[in-house]
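Hey, I'm writing a tutorial for new members on how sequence and structure tokens pair up, and I'd like a real worked example in the thread rather than a made-up one. If someone can provide the structure for the chain below, I'll link this post from the tutorial.
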Amino acid sequence: ACRKTMKNLIKIEPLSDDEATAILKLPKFNGLKPVNCDDCGHSADFSRKIFGISGVKKNKRCDDEIQDIISSYISKIYGIAYVFFKSTDDKFYADSACCPKCQSTKITFDIALTDDFLSDISKLTGKPIEELRHGIEANFKHITSNKIKKN
């Protein structure tokens, strides 16, 4: 008799509120955070839902196919439009947010210019933190003003 086995079972589970609160306190995890609702434009106080993911080898966590499978599952089961994948130590997560204004889960995440983040960049480049912050903000303004002009 032949039996099918599932060697590559991916397990996806929402973290409890306590687990999510603890993981959100980690600077490495929270460097990429929700910044804007794609539906209504709201830009603050997003609630978060984080999923723990097991059964994915470290070297496969960035594979589009694996991420698409996980995203599709979370969308179908939990109704969440956007998830962002993150790793800390040996753990793998999908992070999502919900808009407090319109309840949309189409939330864009972006890198937060925290002092820890800028300090790491400063060490790599040898440039002072304030110079880096000013340069990034100036580039952002330049890009967004060009984007507005094109539309």
